[in-house]
Design brief:
- The protein has 557 residues and is α/β, with parallel strands linked by helices.
- Helices cover 28% and strands 22% of the residues.
- The strands form 8 sheets. Strands 6, 7, 10, 11, 12, 13 and 24 form a 7-stranded mixed β-sheet that branches. A 5-stranded mixed β-sheet has the order 1-2-5-3-4, with helices on both faces. A 5-stranded parallel β-sheet has the order 15-22-16-17-18, with helices on one face.
- It comes from Sedimentitalea nanhaiensis.
- It holds the Pfam family BLH_phosphatase.
Length: 557
């Protein structure tokens, strides 16, 4: 007997036997639902036998038999009604548990999100891919799928999605491409660090989505509910279906604000801010300007996160401002990092440490933010040093800049495209999916071991475009990704340590040392960040102009 919980009130299992009733009772269950018709298998006890044994053990029991592979809409309604009427917790069973899990999934449609339903069933070992469209359709069988078909469908209209569409159109202008994204506004997120440092106005970092979708590319303004890669289909909210010949998946990353207790309630007030949100970055600068003395905490969660240097960029620019304002000596800067190093590529650490010393910042490694009380100006961190029991500590603050924990979006994590950790599973060189050879991915959502930065997506988009065009011509991948990522570390107003690196921490500088030595702070790198990168982004990358982003050809051995 293998009992698998779906919720606190319902578990499912394979066929149970009359002799199992006492163990089921002792496990805390109060009722049983049988979803397996009598006579389905030669070794199957009849429901009457189960019922007698259950009642003898003090359990209530119900019979909702479902023919294998024929779960109707009415069956789901009947299951839900029975589940509601019985005292919980309830154990439902069939031959393997799949029918019971399917009934619950359909019954929960409209009450829980698709991602929550799929996550619960996946954790229990059941694949609900075959009923995704019905779940999205409120638990009912769709009568009209309304299919639309495109040569290429791109999920996500962020930096990677729009750049990939533009790069594809530059190579094959006649391609029928659709981008799926519900957002009205597109953001240049690397600019938010500069907003939080009082350098950019927030309006400089946003444009309407409609103004950026490449000419001739269809924009489907909708959220994705699920994927059916075996059917070359993307399921949208509302159960609309979009079919594709080839799919590019790049919806970005999920900022999991709710993972930190009390954080959502205090963001944007009580001295708590984050440059990871457009509306909060200006508040960061207001706090910096206002603070004349006290403690300022800057946090960084466990990897992976997008722009891993952003949490410390906020610290450096704040420290520089307090230095220029003449109040730095009155401010206790604490950098609390859930990881064990300041920066993952050691060549850049000496220059960064010079600024840690300049701003007299305290580096607290293995400190993970778990809770915040904004009005009380208190935060709690779990300190998990190697070979040491986890200790929870309390720290008071006057200002706190938070970088939230981050995961793949829910609809990605529960999909067939994801690896065990929830990220899109790709070959790290070709960016092609390891299982579905007509699927590619780029940007923050894929599982290649590179830094999740806009600069990485700028390089990845042409590689995906080259390889898709090669595939359309019947050839093998022709371009490969070396893991390039860039992190312009704003160590003070006017100077940047320009970290550029690839897989394994290999340094990949774009400029000769005489122009920009990335291991040292330079004004040239600041000029690049402040003046050149925004127009390169808006007018180059998003328009299909691959400046300094020519794909590296596959090495033939």
């Amino acid at each position: 007997m293998d009992i698998k919980p779906l919720t606190a009130g319902l578990s499912v299992s394979e066929q149970i036997m009359p002799a199992d009733m006492q163990a089921i009772k002792e496990a805390g269950f109060r009722a049983i639902i049988c979803n397996r018709p009598d006579g389905e298998g030669a070794d199957q006890p009849a429901f009457e036998e189960i019922s007698k044994a259950a009642k003898k053990a003090g359990l209530q029991v119900a019979y909702v038999p479902i023919v294998s592979g024929k779960v109707t809409d009415d069956d789901a309604v009947a299951f839900d009604k029975t589940l509601t009427e019985l005292p919980g917790p309830v154990l439902a069973y069939c031959r393997t548990g799949t029918r019971s899990a399917t009934l619950w999934s359909l019954a929960q449609a409209g009450q829980r999100s698709l991602a929550d339903i799929l996550a619960a069933t996946k954790a229990a070992g059941y694949d609900m891919g075959g009923v995704v469209r019905r779940i999205v359709n409120g638990g009912k069988t769709p009568t009209d799928t309304g299919d639309a078909n495109y040569e290429i469908v791109i999920v996500g209209a962020g930096a990677g999605g729009i750049a990939a569409a533009a790069s594809l159109k530059a190579r094959k202008p006649d391609l029928e491409i659709a981008i799926v994204d519900p957002a009205d506004i597109h953001y240049y997120q690397p600019g938010w660090t500069m907003v939080g440092g009082g350098i950019f106005e927030p309006e400089k970092t946003s444009r309407t989505m409609g103004s950026l979708i490449p000419k001739g590319v269809h924009w489907i303004k909708s959220a994705v509910a699920a994927f059916e890669p075996q059917n070359n289909a993307v399921i949208l909210d509302g159960c609309r279906v979009v079919k594709y010949n080839r799919l590019i998946v790049c919806p970005g990353i999920k900022l999991d604000w709710n993972k930190i207790e009390g954080l959502v309630d205090t963001l944007g007030q009580n001295g708590v801010s984050s440059n990871y949100r457009y509306d909060l970055a200006p508040y960061t600068w207001k706090l910096v300007e206002k603070l004349k003395q006290g403690r300022a905490i800057f946090t960084q969660p466990s990897m992976p996160i997008k722009c891993a240097g952003a949490p410390q960029k906020a610290m450096y620019l704040s420290g520089d401002a307090w230095h220029r304002f003449g109040v730095l000596k009155n401010i206790d800067i604490q950098f609390n990092n859930a990881g064990g190093v300041l920066f993952g590529v050691k060549d850049y650490v000496p220059a960064l440490m010079d600024y840690v010393k300049k701003y007299d910042a305290t580096l607290n490694f293995f400190h993970n933010l778990v809770a915040v009380d904004g009005p009380a100006k208190k935060a709690w961190f779990d300190v998990a040093k190697p070979d040491t029991p986890v200790e929870r500590i309390e720290m008071e603050f006057d200002m706190m800049h938070v970088c939230p924990p981050q995961t793949a979006p829910d609809f990605i994590r529960v999909s067939a495209l994801a690896d065990a950790a929830g990220w899109v599973d790709v070959d790290q060189a070709t960016l092609r999916h390891k299982t579905y050879d007509n699927v590619w991915s780029l940007g923050d959502v894929m599982n290649a071991p590179n830094a999740k930065t806009m600069a990485a997506a700028r390089i990845q988009a042409p590689i995906v475009a080259e390889n898709i065009v090669a595939d359309m011509r019947g050839g093998s991948p022709v371009a490969q990704y070396n893991g390039y990522g860039s992190c312009p570390l704003t160590v003070e107003r006017g100077k940047i340590v320009l970290a550029e690196f690839g897989y394994g921490g290999t340094m990949l500088p774009s400029f000769p040392k005489a122009i920009i030595d990335g291991t040292k702070p330079s004004r040239a790198a600041w000029f690049l960040k402040e003046k050149m990168l925004p127009p390169i982004y808006w007018q180059g990358m998003l328009k299909g102009h691959e400046w300094m982003a020519k794909p590296e050809k596959v090495t033939v051995k």
